[in-house]
Amino acid sequence: MIRVGILTISDREARGEVEDRTYAVLRETLAFGPYEITNYEIIPDEPAQIKRMLRLWTDRDGLDLILTNGSIRLSNRDHAPEATRDMLEKEAPGIAELIRMEAYKKNPLAALSRGVAGVRGKTLIVNLPGGPQGCKDSLEIILPLIPEAVQRITGRPVAQLANTLSFD
């Protein structure tokens, strides 16, 4: 199983002003694969808090995959890409580029997203958009790559999904 953490980054959701609608979408999208969601948190868009959660979930909890959602737009208040990048030991730019390239086909504004992806320790971290549809679409774009990426990062075999890409 791939142990997953979902980190929702949103000031309004952290204050309880609106409901986190992305968690359910991510949970449903991951339900048919080798995924176990073990960590979930909603935090405000504060770089120190984002870094703290990424550090805890990678270094203490040893998750295989962290999916952040929200806070990747061009707005002055969106800090997830910078905070994530500060925590990465290696970037995986192809993942974020693939998300933008494929998401652009449905929504040209996807080209303005600033999400990043990479590795800290033995954990793959990917920034996803905050809206439920964009989040779902983005995850579905990279879903075939995740088992192979986690296997390469952790060095342990991971059950492959029926429709994943073959790298043989």
Automatic annotation (TrEMBL):
NCBIfam families: molyb_syn (TIGR00177). SMART domains: MoCF_biosynth. Keywords: Molybdenum cofactor biosynthesis, Nucleotidyltransferase, Transferase. Its EC number is 2.7.7.75. Residues 5-149 form the MoaB/Mog domain. Pathway: Cofactor biosynthesis; molybdopterin biosynthesis. This is Molybdopterin adenylyltransferase. InterPro entries: MoaB/Mog-like_dom_sf (IPR036425), MoaB/Mog_dom (IPR001453), MPT_Adenylyltrnsfr/MoaC-Rel (IPR051920). One of its GO terms (molecular function) is molybdopterin adenylyltransferase activity. It comes from the Bacteria. It holds the Pfam family MoCF_biosynth. PANTHER family: MOLYBDENUM COFACTOR BIOSYNTHESIS, MOLYBDOPTERIN MOLYBDOTRANSFERASE.
